[in-house]
Amino acid sequence: MVQELFDRAANCLKEQLPFVLYSKPNETELVGVFQNNDTIHKVNDFTETGFVFAPFDLNSDAILLKMDAVEKVPLNLLHEILPIERDSPKNNTEEKVRYVKLISNAINHIDEGDFNKVVLSRKIEVDCKDDYFEIYQRILNVYKKAFCYFWYHPKIGTWMGATPEILVKSNGSQFTTMSLAGTQNSVGNDAPKWEEKELHEQQLVTDYIFDALKDKVISLNSSERESVRAGQLWHLRTEMKGTFAPNKFGDVLKALHPTPAVCGSPLQNAKKFILENELYDRTFYTGFLGELNMKSELSRNRNRRNQENSAYRSVMKTSELYVNLRCMQLFKDKAEIYVGGGITADSISEKEWEETALKSNTMFRVLDGK
Ligand SMILES: C=C(O[C@H]1C=CC=C(C(=O)O)[C@@H]1O)C(=O)O
């Protein structure tokens, strides 16, 4: 039962023990991972097994929750909770002036040829007095197509989110990734019409991924570009599937993160600009999270009973990692919502500001500010 899993997690909060609750896109299962002490386990080379929570800047530590206990329950929720009609404040002029200036500065750097695209972001503080489990339940109810998580480590913090973006999903040496960029508000069910700026912005991500992976994979193919919905928003997405050489998962992961969907291209120049100019620490926003190197057994031929079982079973490693977007860090009576957007030469500051406000609604709609 969901309530039992929530109770177990609530007890961990009380006892200050790390846990994560999550549900994968379109799945009807809620998973709880519980670590039975408050040690901070750091990831060394992504060959470890557990639930990883990695920052934007991998010069800081990626954290691994050990799967001391794992519990899975069907996701039939207790009662339907509707999203809250609460939109992000648009009249925060001081913050707007600062953000617009940051965008102009980035466009100057683009014009000077320092980079083609950079993803800029900001943090919005909001009062939040309600129960963490109420908030998480709203997230699960409202964003069924997203990876919905609630992560807690007493020495690091409490995070929640509903992300639409897969960083990488692997099964043995087969993997899937995606290029997600371009944003529009969804109006009714009308499919969006994309402008050149958004098509270009998303194409940069696709090209970057092909280039970053070219010497790390045996094959890589992409699907047609499509429009996908994430809550109230539309994005452009291209899916890519490939095969990497045995034991190269860590290399693929490090080559992918951070993609220009959250950083920019060329990578180093865009990242330098972000670290020097955003003037706040993204910490885990635009990092990644999820199952790392889970072992799954593959039976090759169940019918040949008189053969040694082991000859017909092989252990595969699977990982499923998501980019930490549409997320927030929770504190005692406030939340910090993180949002950003891709800036290119064609960006219009006012529109980029609006876009971050729209994105922040994903979390605003699950927070009750009473
Ligand atoms: C950086 C964010 O979104 C990324 C993912 C999809 C679309 C994006 C965009 O249109 O700029 C961003 O690249 C965010 O939600 O904070």
TrEMBL record:
Domain of life: Bacteria
InterPro entries (alphabetical): ADC_synthase, Chorismate_C
Pfam families: Chorismate_bind
Residue span, Chorismate-utilising enzyme C-terminal domain: 98-298, 317-359
SUPFAM superfamilies per the UniProt record, alphabetical: ADC synthase (SSF56322)
PANTHER family in UniProt: ISOCHORISMATE SYNTHASE ENTC (PTHR42839:SF2)
Name of the protein in its database record: Isochorismate synthase
Organism, scientific name: Maribacter aquivivus
